[in-house]
Amino acid sequence: MIVEIGAFALILSLVLSVLQTGASALARLRRGPILAAVGEGAAIAAFFTLAVSFAALIYAFVVSDFSVANVATNSHSAKPLLYRVGGAWGSHEGSMLMWCLALTGFGALLAGYGRGLTAGLKAVAVATQGALGIAFLAYTVFASNPFWRLTDPPVEGRSLNPLLQDPALILHPPFLYVGYVGLSVVFSLAIAALVEGRADAAWARWVRPWTLAAWSALTVGITLGAFWAYYELGWGGWWFWDPVENASFMPWLIATALLHSAVVTERRGALPGWTIFLALGGYTFSMLGAFLVRSGVLTSVHAFAVDPTRGVLLLTILGVTAGLGFALFAWRAPAMARGGMFAPISRESALVLNNILLAAATATVLLGTLYPLIREAMAGEAISVGPPYFNLTFTPLMFILLLLLPAGPLLAWKRADAGAALQRLWVAALLAAMAAVATLALAEPRSLFGAAGLALGVWLIIGSATEVAERIRLFRAPRGEVLRRLGGLPRGTWGMTLAHAGLGVFVLGAVFETTWKAETAEVLAIGQRLEVAGYVVALENVAPVQGPNYEAEQATLRAFAPDGTLACMARPERRLYSAGGQTTSEVAICTRGLSHLYVVLGERRSGADGQPVWLVTGYWNPWALLIFLGPGLMALGGVVSLSDRRLRLAVGRRAAQAQPAGPEPAPKPLGEPA
Questions:
Q1: pLDDT for 296-310, tens place per residue?
Q2: Burial (CB count <10 Å: 0-12, 13-18, 19+), residue 106
Q3: CA angle, corner 430, sides to 424 and 435, nearest 5?
Q4: What's the distance, Cα to Cα, between the start and end of the chain in Å?
Q5: What is the β-pairing status of strands 582-586 and 573-577?
Q6: How far apart are CA 60 and CA 82, in angstroms?
Q7: What is the per-residue burial (b if ≥16 Cβ within 10 Å, else e) of 192-214?
């Protein structure tokens, strides 16, 4: 009965989304407040009905209702409760329901908290959000319904992919989908700006909070995915330029560019057309990611489904949605106001250069992701594009961007003095140079790439702190004045500083781990040892272990530091899941300061004397912890900035309420210039 309630709630949510779209569109045409209220109420109701539907799906997984096809295919009664719950969004059908839940959730937030928008902008945005909901809800109801029943249900299910039975993979999809779908609100606001012919500072102030929320969630989601790959796949790495990894990375790059472009539109009224273009592009790349992961064109542990029919439907949604959006942009954008002018040396110019580099970087990732698919479709030749391509194309663009980044916040708006901005960065430049020299002198083996990367990380961190030091006049004002200014800094400044510094922390970790990583693989019997980066790892025992839904061999290894002291006890496992007959490796990670000693247990073999031996691989990953702490700081910076934006928007609403109310201007015809 609960499953039927969930299926009914899913269909009801689709009906409510139709009502949301129709009522809101009519409200824009007729300026009818009652119609607008109906559309907004339908948006909120659509979310709550879909929440009921999603709760029903979770219930079906928790009680192992194998009469539901989705549960029978992706769950097993022996799975721990946490992974039965996570199985609700670990499948294609369940993940689409979560996508729709996030989509209607953001529609409800837009309807409930968009009071600062003009009636026309809000009506069009809510209608567009409803139309997006119709597309994906219809796809879910008719092509990927997670509540379809089986006429002959099995006694036991087939279980979820063991690699996905992990806490990080329980949290990774919700954050990722909040980021993906959060960009739908920005898409809707962009459509509203084009329809209304209005993309001014007030509109940009609404774009930035939604983009910040989506960007922060995407940052967390991508980082959780990278961390999962790092310790679950057992290959010692954290990023492989997998096409599915790229599918989430491209919207993040576009959202980063949009954040900076919206600042220019908000502060100076400039770049409105480019900001709208990026707002349309962010959600377009999110939909592209949904297509790539679910169409069957990619083979990856991250991919959900191999179903060309459903892939065609998703491609149709992508084509219609993005096509209509960019067609409207081509029609309306040329007539919109161009905004304020600025000199070649100014903060606006720095942000434009930032956007150009980010757009070029996105293009290189897109080409590397799609080219193998296009080549295979046209020539029937399967090729792969791996790290060498991305290192050659993406890395130089990012190096230039990061090199210029600390100077941007020190430039004045409209017209600036580049020499004065660079003079303020002399401490950062000095410390970066010292770090490079020290690296070349002390690190073994010597590496120019490593020295340059370390210098770049220091440059970013100290350069980010320089902007704060300049604002509070750290070395030029009395102590009391410095403290007063420090306490008065807006949270947006702190958020920007944290995000830029977090990027520097990530660069330090990535460069060290890439440059000075060490790896050793040995076939060991009990009592034998291997050496990696000065650490000695001795195999003491291998014993069977019984898990809740798997059997495992667990090794006990004693790791000794270069000075002979005990570093840690490592217990990697090799698991066999009886439900699917799959084998996985559970690595052991010993944290040594900021670095990791990473140990993987391989297959059991027979030695020359007939005794069992195991392939044991050890990795030394220096400063690897910074790879994951850096993005955490970046996401925290986004949240801090978001809190500041909310307060400022609230102040703006109160100020607007204090003004005498006047009649709302009549809507412009779509063909009339702004």
A1: 666 555 555 556 778
A2: buried
A3: 140
A4: 54
A5: antiparallel
A6: 14
A7: bbbbbbbbbeebbbbbbbbbbbb
Which pair of structure tokens corresponds to residue 121?
């902008």
Per the listing, tokens 């029609």 go with 331
Secondary structure of residue 320 in the 3-state scheme: helix
With tokens 């993979």, the residue in question is 169
Residue carrying the six token digits 């991250």: 302
Question: Helices marked H in 387-538 — which ranges?
Answer: 387-404, 418-423, 426-442, 448-471, 479-488, 491-515
380 exposed, middle or buried (CB, 10 Å; 0-12, 13-18, 19+)?
Answer: exposed
Residue for token pair 């090794």:
555
Q: Are 196 and 121 in contact (CB under 8 A)?
A: yes
CA distances from 461 to 70, 394, 474 (A): 48, 22, 17
What is the token pair recorded at 78? Answer: 């022996």
User: From CA 289, how far away is CA 315, in angstroms rounded?
Assistant: 10
Q: How many secondary structure helices (H) and strands (E) does the chain include?
A: 19, 10
- Tokens 């790495």 correspond to 237
Q: Is residue 607 within 8 Å of residue 613, measured between CB atoms?
A: yes
Kindly report the pTM of this predicted structure.
0.92
Q: Which residue type, as a one-letter code, is found at position 104?
A: T
List pLDDT tens digits, range 253-274: 999 999 999 999 988 888 899 9
- Rounded CA-CA distance 91/97 in Å is 10
Distance from CA of residue 484 to its chain's centroid?
A: 36
pLDDT at 306: 54
